[in-house]
Amino acid sequence: MKIIVTSIFVQDQDKALEFYSQTLGFVKKHDVPIGKFRWITLVSPDDQNGTELLLEPNDHPAAKEYQKKIFAEGIPATMFGVADVRKEYERLMNLGVKFTMEPTKMGDVTIAVFDDTCGNLIQIAQK
Questions:
Q1: Which one of 17, 81, 113, 114 is least enclosed by Cβ atoms within 10 Å?
Q2: pLDDT tier for residue 38 given thresholds of 50, 70 and 90
Q3: Which residue intervals define the domain VOC in the entry (predicted)?
């Protein structure tokens, strides 16, 4: 068994697609209309056959509440691995991304946390 798709709730699929592809650099894999929403997945440019990230609409009240509460508590919705957290931090800062935690060493891992503008905090990590 392996993880093939993981999802993140987003407030606006178009805005999320733009942020996750143009700002973060993920590659759109699927964009399929499903009723009033779409099945939008992205993959790492380095592993286009790898795990897909689904931009899941937070249309359900439980999804909205979950997203709002973990954001308010400062809990990242997911984590992405990067080769160099400090370099990625600088790149994203230069693109206007707002960080809630600067690169911080925690044992063998360095992490940073940013706001994805779509209702989530995202953690990046370097092992």
A1: 81
A2: very high
A3: 1-127
The pTM score is: 0.95
Which pairing describes strands 121-126 and 78-81: parallel, antiparallel, or unpaired? Answer: parallel
Number of domains composing the chain: 1
User: What residues make up the domain containing 60?
Assistant: 5-126
Q: 10 Å Cβ neighbour count for 114? A: 22
DSSP letter for 1, please.
Answer: -
Per-residue pLDDT band at 63 (split at 50, 70, 90) = very high
Q: What is the mean pLDDT of residues 82-105?
A: 98
Residue 23: how many CB atoms within 10 A of its CB? 16
CATH of the domain at 101: 3.10.180.10
Give the mean pLDDT of 78-101. Answer: 98
Per-position b or e across 70-101, b if 16+ CB within 10 A of its CB: bbeeeebbeeeebeebeebbeebeeeebeeee
